Amino acid sequence: QVQVVESGGALVQAGGSLRLSCTASGLTFDGWAMSWFRQAPGKEREGLSCITWRGDTYYYDDSLKGRFTISGDNAKNTMYLQLNSLKPEDTAIYYCALNTYCSTTRVKYWGQGTQVTVSS
């Protein structure tokens, strides 16, 4: 059974940093892609970034690229999202997703989400 679990969400002050982690179990990462999404209160879920098992990275929102960095560790089936210079508008539930390719519309497995709250 495949499970996707996020961690690392917290309450942080504006300007602070967090590192989110996402670990997949029940499969080997070869042939998969892991993505980060987020959903702010009252807004639709949006795709942030994706990393493939080969290490290719994609950022769906170029405006975030300078503050958010995606990385992965295939040996641990784990992906990370480094969040820097956080702003109150970054407050959202951050979700990890697994698919056979990077996509904002196709997801095979979702994690349960981790809450990031940025105070002003």
Could you explain the architecture of this structure?
The radius of gyration is 13 Å and the shape is globular. With 120 residues, it is mostly beta strands. The protein contains no helices and eleven strands. 31% of the residues are buried. The N and C termini lie far apart (41 Å). The protein has strands at residues 3-7, 11-13, 18-25, 33-39, 46-52, 57-59, 68-73, 78-83, 92-99, 109-110, 114-119. Strands 2, 4, 5, 6, 9, 10 and 11 form a seven-stranded mixed beta sheet that branches. Helices cover 0% and strands 51% of the residues. A hairpin with a 6-residue loop joins strand 4 and strand 5.
In short:
With 120 residues, the chain is mostly beta strands. The protein has no helices and 11 strands.
Order of helices and strands: EEEEEEEEEEE
What would you call the structural class? mainly beta
Subunit organisation of the chains? single chain
> How many strands appear in the DSSP assignment?
11
Residue share in helices? Answer: under 10%
Q: Hey, roughly how much beta strand do the residues contain?
A: over 45%
- Major β-sheet profile: 7 strands, mixed
Overall pLDDT, averaged?
A: 95
Q: Give the N-to-C terminal Cα separation.
A: 41 Å
User: What general outline do the C-alpha atoms trace?
Assistant: globular
Rg: 13 Å
- In the predicted model, the low-confidence regions spanning at least 5 consecutive residues are none
**Number of helix segments?**
0
Tag the structure with descriptive keywords.
0% helix; four-stranded antiparallel sheet; mainly beta; 120 residues; seven-stranded mixed sheet
